[in-house]
Design a protein that fits this description.
InterPro entries: HNH (IPR002711), HNH_nuc (IPR003615). With 142 residues, the chain is mainly α. The chain is built from seven helices and two strands. The chain has two domains: 48 residues, no CATH class; 75 residues. Helices cover 55% and strands 7% of the residues. The structure holds zinc ion (ZN).
Length: 142
Amino acid sequence: MEKGQLQRQRGWQTSKGGSPDQSDMARLHKLAPRITSSSPRIGSTVGDSRAHDRNREARAPWRKWYRTARWSRLRLKIFERDLFQCQMPGCGHVEGNLSKLVCDHKKPHRGNERMFWDEDNLQTLCKPCHDSLKQRQERADG
Ligand SMILES: [Zn+2]
């Protein structure tokens, strides 16, 4: 049913090439509250953790890019390129256990698709280095 609303929305946005007239504005005002009020509170009222995850994903759609085959291939490629060695200056730990390696974005991609998939923006880190790096970054971001 949410899909229907979206399609209707798109319909009146694209079908009229000209400037919106009075009736379009009136429809916009009637439609808008239904579209916006339906979603925001789902997770908080139920306390359902899966709903919570869905909300997180809606806010950060790039999270699911980590679950794609493309990402697991790219991650492996980066590990191989870096010879399974942590790229943190002063560490240089070589780790054969891939679950203890992290394919890290040097510059935070913040949902930017180009930066997310950019091999030059990716590096191999061992888990301890990655975790302490992220902790420092989060503190710096506030
Ligand atoms: Zn390291």
